[in-house]
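User: Last request for today: this protein with pyridoxal-5'-phosphate, please.
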Amino acid sequence: MFQFPSGISLDDFQHRVAALERDSHFEIIERNLFDEGPHLVSTGDLPWGDDVRNLAAETYMRFLHGETWLTGVGALAMQTEIVTWMGRLLGADHPTGFVTSGGTESNLCALLAASSRARRRGSVVFPEYGHYSLPKACSMFGFEPIIVPARQGSACDVDPAAIDAAIRDDTIAIVATAGTWAYGSVDPITRIGEIAETRGVHLHVDACFGGYILPFLERSGYDREIPLWDFRVPGVSSISADLHKNGMAPPPASTLFFRDDALLEAAKAMCPPNGTIAGTRGTGPIAGAWAMVTLLGEDGYTAVSLQTMKLRDRLFSGVEAIDGVQIYPGSRINVSLLFSDELDLSHVVAELRTKGWMFSTRNHPRNVAMVLVPMPQNERAIDPFLEDLETAMSLASPLRRISETESGDSPYGV
Ligand SMILES: Cc1ncc(COP(=O)(O)O)c(C=O)c1O
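Assistant: Here's the final one, the structure of the complex with pyridoxal-5'-phosphate:
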């Protein structure tokens, strides 16, 4: 049989690909209550079936050969369309920004832009439950992190007065979150925006999770109480929002939006030529995201967001009906923490994983808690998950404080 230059045969190669694919559990995507990624895998309840997903994948493949230098003309035009369309939905009059490789890069670039405009390094103020990309940015770029504790008795709520008190003369940015990891809560951004304006500090909103769902939930009337958090808050200078999370696009793709061109120019001055940390960017992810945005539009994203929240709400009421477990209060999006006040869930978690369920864990505010992120592809998984959870609860034991290391202290605790 024909062998490739490396010596591997086609058969061996196919076997290896199949084995690695199997190890990645793609085939049980419905049981994955953690991953973001290209979510329109199974859209049972949405009218377009798999058409949108297939066209996004096809468009991605057609731009597989490109990079953003010489062959980037098409993808850069797509980037402008994405930023303009979504930036307007986020309340910007003249939307500006770019597509990055993910939420982490978007957050890093936002802080670099703030530092570039301030022409110094200095400190960055953010709540303790801010995403780990924030301390990461600080250690990478020599900013001093000023970490503000959550309000007493809460894991995901910050007192704006505590943010105000933490700002120093050298502070270059405050970061607030719209859709916190693990809790799904939204920070009091209107008040924090007033503080940012008064103190003359850049306010970056990390809406990596909430960015592509909150605007549609607000417009649809699903949640009319969502406090303002986007560019309609005058003090907000930049917003990161991930296309590869609730934007439903194939990874890696996120967007960073700036309130004005001056900030984009400051970003470019710090990270020439585009403002991104990456130099060469593949055009495939930009094209895949553009296809998603172009095919779904506002109505499509609204339908996806409502479908997502329908699943979340089913999950919430199912969990609340099971003795001993609860959903942590405050979630406004499809990220939520399932925890117990009185029971140790370690064995429950292990049992659910044995049954093929994929989710992340967190050990704050209680011993091992599960982070659940329902997406449209989980439609058929909600009821079986709840059944398995209820059965596995017989393995829960009385609560004993365990150390961070015992419960797996990775950023996502995956
Ligand atoms: C609130 C928040 N910000 C930033 C990020 C980082 O995103 P990424 O993993 O795409 O770098 C995440 C990831 O879950 C997140 O939840």
